[in-house]
Amino acid sequence: MIKKASKKADLIILQELHQSPYFCITENPQNFDFAENFENDLIFWSQVAKKYNVVLVTSLFEKRAEGLYHNTAFVFEKNGEIAGKYRKMHIPDDPAYYEKFYFTEGDLGFTPIQTSVGKLGVLICWDQWFPEASRLMAMAGAEILIYPTAIGFLGEEPIAEQKSQLERWLTIQKSHSIANGIPVATANRIGFEKDPSKNFKGIQFWGNSFILNSKGEEIAKASQDSDEILYAEISKAETKEMRDMWPFFRDRRIEDYSELSKRWRD
């Protein structure tokens, strides 16, 4: 699919933890073995980016040291070099999403990655629910927000709740686009993955990958259950126009936001 997409695209984005099943559905020490070939994974994806002459956003299980692992997006330049990386900052610990068992919180901050196609504000899945993350990326000069994602429904959840969750997921990311005047691209998993522990039926990943322009409008969207390639052209001129006409950055009352650094206001 990367080979096919590279005929039209300069930038290709893969979904979260795309090399393996979503192993975080259980807490199992054996799953750390998925990170054992991490160094070889870097070489492989570097070669892919170079072979197809694309900027490639991957999502890898990074083994930093024994007992120290990250959920990390590595961005490869068209020549195969690593342009930069982002370590997932917000780590969930919810039923069937036991990521805190596996991943240490990121320590690289919210810093865009400079590439030949622009500054990429790469974030990962659970990060997409936090307006602070998207704002800081935009403030640091990101020209597009990118979210490799693995999210879906538990089989036990009612249909109405499933629809509600999906709508909330779409809405929060559209709000990041609108509030920052910036395009957003999200690549989500599809398919059903069983829970090996049998505590749950499993996760039905809900797909619906999409690309938004800087107005928060969908310019490309995938289905819920099929492998697809989404194509879209991002306009930097449109971003400038939106920010000139809707100057949210100008009107921010930064002198009054100090309380945001606290966990809660008592």
Describe this structure in words.
The protein contains 6 helices and 16 strands. The protein has a 6-stranded mixed sheet with strand order 8-9-10-12-15-16, with helices on one face. Strands 1, 2, 3, 4 and 5 form a 5-stranded mixed sheet that branches. A 3-stranded antiparallel sheet has the order 11-14-13. It has helices at residues 2-5, 38-52, 131-139, 159-180, 236-245, 248-251, and strands spanning 11-13, 55-57, 60-65, 68-76, 82-87, 93-94, 97-98, 113-115, 118-122, 144-149, 152-154, 184-188, 190-194, 202-206, 210-212, 218-221. The model has no long low-confidence stretch (mean pLDDT 97). The protein is α+β, with helices and mostly antiparallel strands. It has one domain (2-261): Carbon-nitrogen hydrolase (Nitrilase/N-carbamoyl-D-aminoacid amidohydrolase), CATH 3.60.110. A hairpin with a 2-residue loop joins strand 6 (93-94) and strand 7 (97-98). The chain starts with a helix and ends in a 15-residue tail after the last helix. Helices cover 24% and strands 26% of the residues.
Summed over residues and divided by their number, the pLDDT gives a mean of 97
Biggest sheet overview: 6 strands, mixed
CATH superfamily caption: Carbon-nitrogen hydrolase
The CATH class label is Alpha Beta
Number of discrete helical segments: 6
Distance between the termini: 51 Å
What is the string of helix and strand elements? HEHEEEEEEEEHEEHEEEEEHH
- Helix/strand/pairing category: alpha+beta
Fraction of residues in helix: 10-25%
Name the shape in a single word.
globular
